[in-house]
Amino acid sequence: MHVLILNGPNLNLLGQRDQNVYGGKTLAEINAGLEAEAKKLGLTVEFYQSNSEGELVDRIQGFDGGAIIINAGAYSHYSLAVADALRDCKKLKIEAHLSNIFAREEFRRTSVLSPVCDGVISGFGEQSYLLALKYLAGRVQ
Ligand code: DQA
């Protein structure tokens, strides 16, 4: 299965952002680890990060693989455009967050993406993406 791992705004600054919340690794380091794990799991992955809502929508619309893992950052909490793109995308969709959004500020506790995704993984740092990949690998066996 081919998997798109999408990251939204400010996730390009991982490693510099609050390390107590998001960990110390850069996005490139996280992605390198995921690529190695994906290979072991028999999956292929592509990565995309954008700070722009429209670019995330374009990427979702243009995706032709089997599943999307999306951490839309703050867009998760209010982007109806990203939610609509995911709703219209007939692939498996997993929402991932590094932090536990349900244990943080009130405005982070709601995600408009959760109702249009197949599942949500939140609070396990970079492992959130890995858990999503493991789930997808199980689906294809
Ligand atoms: C985040 C949580 C969001 O609330 C925040 O805006 C982010 C990262 C996470 O991975 O924990 O940018 O999606």
What layout of secondary structure does this protein have?
Elements: E1 2-7, H1 19-22, H2 27-41, E2 44-49, H3 53-62, E3 67-71, H4 80-88, E4 92-97, E5 119-122, H5 127-140
Parallel strand pairs: 1-2, 1-3, 3-4, 4-5
Helix pairs in contact: 2-5, 3-4
Quick structural overview:
The protein contains 5 helices and 5 strands. It is α/β, with parallel strands linked by helices. Strands 2-1-3-4-5 form a 5-stranded parallel β-sheet, with helices on both faces.
Characterise the protein shown here.
- This protein is of the alpha/beta class.
- 37% of the residues lie in helices and 19% in strands.
- It is built from 5 helices and 5 strands; from the N terminus they run E-H-H-E-H-E-H-E-E-H.
- Strands 2-1-3-4-5 form a 5-stranded parallel beta sheet, with helices on both faces.
- Helix 2 (27-41) runs parallel beside helix 5 and helix 3 (53-62) runs parallel beside helix 4 (80-88).
- It is globular and about 40 Å long.
- The mean pLDDT is 97.
- 1,3,4-trihydroxy-5-OXO-cyclohexanecarboxylic acid binds at residues 10, 71, 73-74, 76, 97-99, 101, 108.
Number of helices: 5
Write down the secondary-structure element order.
EHHEHEHEEH
Structural class: alpha/beta
- Quaternary form: single chain
> What is the end-to-end distance?
10 Å
Ligand kinds: 1,3,4-trihydroxy-5-OXO-cyclohexanecarboxylic acid
Mean pLDDT: 97
Largest sheet: 5 strands, parallel
Enumerate the strands of the largest sheet in spatial order, edge to edge or round the barrel. 2-1-3-4-5
- Return residue spans where pLDDT drops below 50 for at least 5 consecutive residues: none
Shape: globular
- Kindly estimate the percentage of residues that lie in beta strands according to DSSP: 15-25%
User: How many β-strand runs?
Assistant: 5
Helical content stands at 25-40%
> Cα-atom Rg, whole angstroms?
14 Å
